[in-house]
Design a protein that fits this description.
Structural class: alpha/beta
Largest sheet: 5 strands, parallel
Distance between the termini: 15 Å
Order of helices and strands: EHEHEHHHEEH
Number of helices: 6
CATH topology: Rossmann fold
Radius of gyration: 17 Å
Strand content: 5-15%
Number of strands: 5
Strand order of the largest sheet: 1-2-3-4-5
Number of domains: 1
Helix content: 25-40%
CATH architecture: 3-Layer(aba) Sandwich
Oligomer: single chain
Amino acid sequence: MCFPHAGGSASFFRDWADGFGPHVEVVAVQYPGREDRLVEPHLVEVDELVDPLVTALSAAADRPTTLFGHSMGAAIAYEVARRLEQRRPAADLRLAVSARPAPHRHRPGSVHLRDDEGILAELRRLGGTDAAVLDNPELRALTTGIVRNDYRLIENYRPGAGPRLRMPVLALAGDRDPDLPPEEVLGWAEVAAGGFRHRVFPGDHFYLVPRRAEVAAELARHLG
């Protein structure tokens, strides 16, 4: 199951199934307030997003499941993994995180308090947003609203306390990510009691776009 970044949507992972065999089903989470859930209100607390996902996944926990999140999605994936492991301790679960510090190294922020130009500056700094979206007034207004709400959610996030994860954890990053020095991914080892691996790819915060095939191969290896 794939969890998108702030401002992202399920379509970010549309073509990812191509990187796996027929025995792997790629499912992407669609957060409220975008694409086919555009009319639904944005959520303001991580718990509001995580709890329904844990309930839904608990019913399907008889199948091996890997939770993969990029940036904000990594924090969401971690919270789902932590609670799902507590609820279904016998489930075959794995966690893969990308471009995000470990939960105990979470840094609150204030990007969500910026005006629209400040939000756009952040998007341009990180890359990953189509220039055509930023140049279109209507799409730009829609995008800044979604991004502001997502940043509010993740910047006010407070990681849950609990035991270290029993499931294997894979941490990925880009070597030129302006928000995450490559060595910071090693912090995820401190929450992983069930085994830890990491890999750093060439690229910035959205290294996984040009490196999708390599990232998929790494995830396939993590799947075992």
